[in-house]
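Dear all,

This email documents one entry for the complex benchmark we are building for the journal club exercise. For each entry we list the sequence lines for every component of the assembly. Then comes the predicted three-dimensional structure of the complex as a token string, followed by one or two observations. Please use this as the template for your own entries, and keep the labels exactly as they appear.
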Amino acid sequence: MHAPRKPVLIVGSVALDTIETPFGAVRDVLGGAASYSSVASSFFTNVRMVGVVGEDFPREHLRLFQEREIDIAGLRTSTGETFRWSGYYEYDMNQAHTVATHLNVFETFCPTIPAEYRRTPYVFLANIDPDLQLAVLDQIESPKFTIADTMNFWISGKRNRVLDVFKRVDAITINDAEARQLCDTASLVTAGRQLLAMGPKMVIIKKGEHGALLFTPDDYFVAPSFPLEDVRDPTGAGDTFAGGVVGYLAFTDDVSEENMRKAVVYGSVMASYTVEDFSLNRLARLEHGEVLVRFAEMRRMTMIAE
Amino acid sequence: MHAPRKPVLIVGSVALDTIETPFGAVRDVLGGAASYSSVASSFFTNVRMVGVVGEDFPREHLRLFQEREIDIAGLRTSTGETFRWSGYYEYDMNQAHTVATHLNVFETFCPTIPAEYRRTPYVFLANIDPDLQLAVLDQIESPKFTIADTMNFWISGKRNRVLDVFKRVDAITINDAEARQLCDTASLVTAGRQLLAMGPKMVIIKKGEHGALLFTPDDYFVAPSFPLEDVRDPTGAGDTFAGGVVGYLAFTDDVSEENMRKAVVYGSVMASYTVEDFSLNRLARLEHGEVLVRFAEMRRMTMIAE
């Protein structure tokens, strides 16, 4: 099959994470939404990454991006230290507990989209300040498909700007707790419908180990998460998921509902690998064939006979 | 289609429940695992119910069983009061908080299976003392398919007897928290495999609003729950689910893996109606056509194209 294979532009954070889970602890490892989503997307198509790191950012981390053939011309190095996040997970790994967030170079980050990136047809705005997401939307030209992520911090602090983003993108990803918070309802179905009414044509609610829900005006799709015996570190699962979704859409250049379902399943597959190890370790050694195997298993495990 | 339509024997509690949820409160309404599961099963096949009520049990509740053509020759009336449960749910309705449990006539209940019930091919042992479940298994003759439910109370207090039940039945249903408790693991996949190793050929882990997982030695199936905008009272959802599962299996007289998947989906559909209203109110006015509609929707919402 000769696939259309359009490129993807990803704007978001590149971070150094310090993480503790019941299965281990790591310090200053590669993290950040743009890192996870770009590497996930790179399994499907060409990725152009926009973000910022500090002068202390280890060169070895760039090697992973280069190995995955990610275009990092848009990854700036600024004076100062790289964005750092530290947190821990208890037995219930659906819930991250933040210990500290040091924005560092991210504090003054203003994403400038290189001229040669501005006509990228597929765009993922990872979880950053909604004002920055809007600034990116102002710079890109006639995109085919834009998708944005957000988080509770912005929903509480900049609700109206988050809603401005929702009005201007084709799709959003949001986790279950955030959807409930934003829509003030216990029902995710009610929340999904309300979110659609806010502007986007597609809403994906991420439920962690319980999978994801895809809402479109005429359709509703439920994807499970891939069943795992060992989850070592859930950090980056949501970003990986979104990267897989947009990567598959760009690879097929098809944003129909039917294809969107497959994209959501590919997103779940990519996330299932991320959580098997700390940082991007599992994605770094992932083979394309493994992605196809789990996709086929996901189809098999959800099939209901006539 | 001329279906085989085998009968089902259900043994469990019939109760009067007092319940408060964020959407209302009811006092001394019809409840109990045998009530929910028998009425759910009755949408698919003939049901024979074994349980006990007190002299105070309102006659009007028997009318529902009779309307559903449930055989209540095995429902004894004993001297004393009917089993009573009272509890409440907060905003997160996945979690029931028990206020009081009064066993009353249930305290001395020893299920005697009427002679004409002993060869019933399909048997559901609802959540009762595992010693009573074993006593029922001793009385039935060459059943085709037995399925048992249990709960945290018995897992803590009579773990070995629960395991004795698991060794002797074809299938078990258990909720996610109980599976984790019994198997001492966070992973439901690990728990499902461990439970299979304890004896049953099929294990169903119920995840409330997140659906259900079906484990067999060679297969793994994920069923979502039906998406609802309004959940008024989750009481009885798990019992309704199990009743739907065993009812559909008996209706088709087919316990293949493929058919078991469909049974799990029918179970989810039945449960989705139960939670829309208090007590068995929604099931009491449910039409068979509505069951088929939601089953078709469940297939549609999980379908992934090739």
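Observations: Chain A has one domain: 8-302. The two ends of chain A are 30 Å apart (CA to CA).
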